[in-house]
């Protein structure tokens, strides 16, 4: 019997501060999907907890997990660039070690790709929650069609990174993940779109994303603001945005990085998640 959908693998990264219980929930959500990956590549970014190691071992044979280790913590971008080399399928689904897939996530995305075979990268909408996945705080919607994604990407990240599915060859051709501090995903999306990759988003919530109470503290401060400035300037240098778009983005995005966390939370929940 032939497979209706092409084989795909899942790429994940975990590190010492990840919660083992959340990692278990992530694996269980993949296990409960209507269509499962042929394998999961889990990058251990530096030493991880003994409990996380036990959970990976528990699911290893069930989900065909290949765990690859980096001796020292190198950060998300470099760990994903390392891990993607171990994915043996052309189609790869990204997933975070603390999020939860809806049971139809892979099926919905694979069906979309089947009907739109020219698409190179696809994501979906997500529900964000603090501690209880059944009590979402917001929904992050992203545009469905390529032309709208291109326009959106000039202002904000056009994909929800934990819900992305892409073609490995297109990622490698676009320079793979790089050490774009705090902007590894967004920078890769821009390079892929700028190189001509065709994109889409499934206009449906397929993932519950854990943001936690500390998200608004993490997404602020001068270090984050500096990274924002560097990323936007890189987008300008390669010609993805022009000078006016660069100035507009900086004028809007930098202040959001340096305001108090409570104000940033208001901006995210009432302006960016409408």
TrEMBL record:
Which GO molecular function entries does the Swiss-Prot or TrEMBL record give? glycosyltransferase activity
TM ranges are none
Q: Which residues form the Glycosyltransferase 2-like domain?
A: 9-141
Q: Which InterPro entries match?
A: Glyco_trans_2-like (IPR001173), Glycosyltransf_2 (IPR050834), Nucleotide-diphossugar_trans (IPR029044)
Which keywords, in A-to-Z order, does the entry hold? Answer: Glycosyltransferase, Transferase
**Ranges in a coiled coil:** none
Please give the family membership noted in the entry: Belongs to the glycosyltransferase 2 family.
Protein name stated in the entry: Glycosyltransferase
């Amino acid at each position: 019997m032939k497979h209706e959908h092409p084989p795909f693998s899942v790429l994940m990264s975990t590190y010492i501060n990840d919660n083992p219980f959340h990692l278990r929930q992530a694996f269980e959500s993949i296990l409960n999907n209507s269509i499962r990956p042929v394998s999961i590549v889990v990058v251990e970014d530096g030493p991880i907890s003994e409990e996380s190691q036990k959970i990976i071992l528990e699911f290893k044979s069930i989900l065909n997990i290949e765990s690859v280790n980096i001796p020292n913590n190198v950060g998300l971008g470099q760990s994903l660039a390392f891990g993607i080399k171990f994915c043996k399928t052309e189609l790869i689904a990204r997933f975070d070690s603390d999020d939860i897939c809806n049971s139809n996530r892979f099926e919905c995305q694979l069906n979309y790709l089947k009907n739109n075979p020219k698409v190179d990268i696809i994501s979906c909408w997500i529900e964000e929650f603090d501690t209880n996945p059944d009590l979402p705080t917001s929904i992050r919607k992203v545009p469905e069609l390529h032309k709208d994604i291109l326009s959106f990407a000039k202002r904000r990240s056009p994909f929800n990174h934990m819900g992305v599915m892409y073609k490995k060859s297109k990622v490698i051709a676009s320079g793979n993940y790089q050490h774009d501090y705090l902007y590894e995903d967004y920078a890769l999306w821009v390079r892929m779109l700028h190189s001509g990759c065709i994109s889409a988003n499934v206009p449906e919530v397929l993932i519950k994303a854990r943001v936690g109470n500390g998200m608004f503290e993490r997404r602020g401060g001068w270090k984050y603001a500096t990274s924002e400035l560097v990323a936007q300037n890189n987008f300008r240098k390669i010609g993805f945005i022009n000078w006016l778009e660069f100035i507009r983005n900086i004028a809007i995005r930098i202040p959001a990085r340096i305001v108090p966390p409570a104000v940033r939370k208001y901006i995210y929940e009432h302006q960016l998640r409408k």
